[in-house]
């Protein structure tokens, strides 16, 4: 939005549309998976997805810490 503030409405609506499509696709995949395999197994797939999301957050925070400390030459706010 910083690059093109006049287009912020379009960008926000496109972002919302993509979120809605992603939820619909996820619901479709989940429904198909529930039909093919037991609901107990679906929970394990969800656990794997959560583990991947947590790993992505950890990697992202490490990247932010390394780039911010390199730029400023001091510790980042995110560092504990």
Automatic annotation (TrEMBL):
Keyword Transmembrane carried by entry: yes
The entry's keywords: Membrane, Transmembrane, Transmembrane helix
Ranges annotated as spanning the membrane: 12-30, 42-64
InterPro entries assigned to the protein according to its UniProt record, in alphabetical order: MFS_trans_sf (IPR036259)
Protein name, UniProt field: MFS transporter
